[in-house]
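Worked example 3. Consider a protein that binds zinc ion.
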Amino acid sequence: MAKNETAEQIKKAVSAIKALRPAYKDLLAFYEKLFLAQEASKKHIHLQPIKIPEDLLSVKRKEKFPLIARKDFTVDIKASEALLKEICQFACEANEVLYQAGIKLMDALDRGTVDASALLSKTLSEDDIYFDETAKSLEIDKEVLLFMAHGSIRPSLSLCAGQLATYIDKNTLWGKGYCPVCGSPPAISILRGEGERFLFCSFCDHEWHSQRIYCPFCENKDQKTLHYFFSEEEEYRVNVCDKCKRYIKTIDTREIKRPVYPFLEQVATLHLDMLAQNQGLQSGHPLWLQT
Ligand SMILES: [Zn+2]
Ligand SMILES: [Zn+2]
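Given these inputs, the predicted complex is written out as structure tokens:
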């Protein structure tokens, strides 16, 4: 029963947001398929646990370094390849930009001009030249290609992060400007309980309990240079750091009764990114699909 919990949460969150913000209907339709396929894919993934030697672990804990680098995640290439094909399919049913990318990538995978396992390995090793060249040869946007490739390995990353999280002391607040597992910036922040703050990694999905008042990118803790503005809907706020001029969106779950799936909230609030960017602020993590 527990294994379907996230899928149910995604479905309920999508239908609630659809009712609240009909303008997001098409985007939500795409992301619902994507997130559900990613959840389903997890069931077929079997990864060897990543072991961190005790001496290395104690250095990382002491220095507050992330547990591993992005390239050191293990990925189930076979499951990711199957998911990549599904994502191409969903893209073909979405907006024009995704449609073009989906159809061209699918064709290249079928013809063998792009090798799926190479594409996925290069995603992990962040081979920028490979992505430049592949996007150019396919005549698609590099960011969209990266988005689709990252989406395909995301279930493996998320499972890996879940296993690695056992190395982290959950009772200590993390005050660094990156994910304690992989060192990437957070994608979204959530307030719950007594107003405790949690951050969600933009790369590996890891969730961590953080300090309430600090910038999760530059680690600024000076209250005078940290503030937030509300959206017209009270459940969201945009936290702004005057020092690094970056922002992160926060959902106050104490204000809402509907189910929340953080990564869906992130994509269903692009109007707030526009508001923030119009003020000259920059997102603290790469934003996918603003089109
Ligand atoms: Zn991470
Ligand atoms: Zn900052």
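Take a moment to read the result before moving on. The chain has two domains: 44-167, 186-283. The radius of gyration is 19 Å.
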